[in-house]
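Sequence in, structure out.
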Amino acid sequence: MAGITRRELGGLSANVLGAITFPGMPSAAESAGRRNTGEPPMDIQRHVVIGPSSGKPFTSVAPIISYATVRDGLVYLAGITADPERLGDVKEQTSQVLARIDGLLKIAGTDKSRLLSSQVWLTDMSLFGAHNEIWNGWVDATSPPTRACLHSPQLWHPGMLVEIMVTAAK
């Protein structure tokens, strides 16, 4: 999969993704066999779903996504950004993003003290210190998640400076 970007991966069909295997990962046949063994079906909860059947405003250029997905006691959040109508500096945007993360974690039945990992994208790495001032004031200092902070030259809306994605335990 070397050379495939995050955006390109999202466009791969299920058939292509189904052909990808990793060490220790069951084959498609093994996975299919489990479905017929009487094991209970996979329990996946999806929260704040955006798409044509969600009843929320939707356009054909908007992604069809769940902002929070829960399975096996883990909560996965989509990349969260600030409100495109209320963009400010990186501190304001980081504050908005973290408040949105708090709300999504609550909907999913957990909170920031249960964070496992986080990924941060900044459009300008010179904003790292200012972003960290807000992050450090928000994160549970006794239970901090792992974190990667990466440069992204552009986010989905002009003027957006930060996007954060987290995974948490229930």
